[in-house]
Amino acid sequence: MDLSVMFFGADAGDARHSQTYDDILTIARTADRLGFHAVWTPERHFQQVGQVFPSPPVLSAALAVATERIGIRAGSVVLPLHHPLRVAEDWAVVDNLSHGRVGLSVATGWHSADFVLSPDTYADRRERMLRDIPLLRRLWAGESEEFPDGTGAMARVLPQPRPVQETLPLWMTTSGNPATWEAAGRLRTGVLGATVGQSRDELAEKIAIYRTACATAPDQHGTGPNGRVTLMAHTYVGVDDEQAQRLAAAPLTTYLKSYVRQTSANKSADKRTAELTDEQTSLLAEFAFRRYLTWGALLGSAETCRKSLADLRDLGVDEIACFIDFGLGLDEVLAGLHRLAELRKEF
């Protein structure tokens, strides 16, 4: 099982964004030296959570030249917001800068405000994503395609530059819907999910659905017949359980409250979420934090995290994307990363 580093976007508060980017580069260089498998960055727009992640290819270009061997992953590219030609072109640049270390997880997108960038693609965003995955693969492989040009006439174009990798490593992001796990299997993409919001048994069932779909799907220049399961997990490996939980509690609950507020601002969100009071939001965040301590997170001593990693490996997880930027300071993140690197050697 591989261990990677994932940035998912803490509440930046009053921090200078230039300092946040410096910290991201410092953490990525450290993860590269420590032998972590990949570094993942999200796509976020117009929200307090994840302010510094509006453009995964731009940030990934910086990560590509700042590191030497670690994989450069987008988790995720909101495919309905972008023309597939632009996705192929942007990430081919990053693939060249990184000498062939790029991988993308594509997503439908979920927040209505994001789609001010492409309002006409919100209603059928899932169908668009599923339709554009095979197209994106063909463009990456060097096949030309026809699209309407500025006059409305059809023009055959080939995206440039040519990437280093002949096949684009692809994942599909899921918030937990079993249908998405199955769709990822049918398209022979990896799947990028999270431990949050589901029990161990529910996760095991979804992995089984995905593996079955992968095994019966035809080859599509994607993953092999067993697929690849990557799961995001909130991570801080402390000196001991008490220290880890004490340091993580305040920033993580603050992050969770910010995330609930972001969810409630989504025009298609459940009305009950939008109507939560501040007190209810705080209680929900506290409940979520306590639940993370019992299953699905890597928050604790090296021994506690070792048991959690072994459990996830036994479930059939291929890679853990360790979500580290939920509000801890840079020194704590780096210290935890070094302790996690010692565990990485065992897995």
UniProtKB/TrEMBL annotation:
Location of the Luciferase-like domain: 1-319
SUPFAM superfamilies: Bacterial luciferase-like
Protein name in UniProt: LLM class flavin-dependent oxidoreductase
Record-linked Pfam families: Bac_luciferase
The organism's place on the tree of life at top rank: Bacteria
UniProt GO molecular function: oxidoreductase activity, acting on paired donors, with incorporation or reduction of molecular oxygen
Cellular component per GO, a single term: cytosol
InterPro entries in UniProt: Bact_Lucif_Oxidored (IPR050766), Biosynth_lucif-like_mOase_dom (IPR024011), Luciferase-like_dom (IPR011251), Luciferase-like_sf (IPR036661)
Top-level taxonomy: Bacteria, Bacillati, Actinomycetota, Actinomycetes, Pseudonocardiales
